[in-house]
Design brief:
Layout lengths: L1 H21 L12 E4 L2 H11 L4 E4 L14 H8 L3 E4 L5 H12 L5 E3 L31 H18 L4 H29 L3 E4 L5 H6 L3 E4 L9 H13 L2 E7 L5 H10 L3 E4 L6 H10 L2
Parallel strand pairs: 1-2, 1-3, 3-4, 5-6, 5-7, 7-8
The protein binds zinc ion (ZN).
């Protein structure tokens, strides 16, 4: 509590100073802001495809950071304050913390939830904070091309609202993007079918939507954000074997640790993945091709 108050005080003080320094340069209207903010890199891929030459796009979650634990800093909040609009997915963890601070300190920042219309999977994911968060649905929405298509539609609607001059352009680009995403979805489906794979293993269940889209079973190794006990570990290995898992995925940059030994015990390859990237279509293909 004390830390969080001290933090709030610090960034408000820094921002007040920054605003007084730049007040004379600012026109005072939000419509002149040329930056849009997103939480996650896959959203940046979508938004740049739609608005890349009309706005700069700033991603708040740094590459390789954990979306459930990352703590937004003063620089992140200043970038948000300077943004014409912040496109969120309304997920718990870092995004929830960021939104609380933005709303408390910069109520004028336009926030747009672009996850509207996405049907969230429940029962696959629990809070890693060990708190008693209810099950608001699995937050790893970017593991699905079908979810991404809904995000792109919602972004297009908001872009037309904040920059009406670009309406025809945004709609035309969204049509092209939807064709690209539809083709990617079909290709992923064919690759998964051709692989004959029925399941995969992951330490943290971050591909629930991918599994849903392509009829796969995701076997998670952790329990409420913690590594499994030896008894649970043996059970998970047995479960991975019986489900016919063909590969173990783990987050790039994380120590595969126990995951690696499970992969060895089951006799399947361990493959590093990272969906928190603007090269998101290529990473989705990499996942499917590893099955
Ligand atoms: Zn998660």
């Amino acid at each position: 509590m004390r830390l969080s108050k001290a933090f709030t005080f610090t960034y408000v003080a820094v921002l007040a100073l920054a605003m007084s320094l730049f007040a004379s340069c600012s026109s005072g209207t939000s419509s002149t802001k040329k930056t849009l903010a997103v939480s996650f890199a896959p959203q940046a891929y979508l938004l740049k495809s739609l608005a890349g030459d009309r706005f700069d796009v700033k991603t708040i979650l740094p590459q390789g950071s954990d979306p459930e634990t990352y703590d937004p800093g003063v620089g992140d909040l200043m970038a948000l304050q300077d943004s014409r609009c912040y496109f969120t997915l309304s997920t718990p963890g870092f995004e929830e913390k960021t939104l609380e601070r933005v709303r408390a300190n910069f109520p004028d920042v336009d926030v747009s939830d672009v996850s509207v219309g996405i049907e969230r999977i429940t029962g696959t994911h629990r809070s890693t904070h060990g708190d008693s968060h209810g099950d608001d649905g699995d937050p790893h929405l970017w593991g699905s091309v079908r979810n991404a298509r809904l995000m792109a539609d919602a972004m297009t609607g908001k872009l037309c609202e904040i920059d009406p001059e670009g309406t025809a352009l945004y709609r035309h680009r969204n049509d092209s993007l939807q064709r690209v995403l539809s083709a990617l979805d079909s290709r992923l489906d064919s690759i998964v079918r051709a692989s004959g794979s029925k399941a995969f293993v992951m330490p943290h269940p971050s591909l629930s939507y991918f599994a849903r889209d392509y009829g796969l079973r995701q076997v998670a190794l952790e329990t409420e954000g913690k590594e499994a006990s030896p008894a649970q570990y043996a059970e998970r290995v047995a479960s991975a074997i019986s489900s016919g898992a063909s590969v173990l995925f783990y987050e790039k940059g994380h120590n595969p640790g126990q995951a690696q030994s499970v992969a060895e015990a089951v006799g399947i390859p361990a493959v590093a993945v990272s969906l928190n990237t603007e090269q998101w279509p290529a990473e989705m293909l990499h996942i499917a091709e590893s099955l």
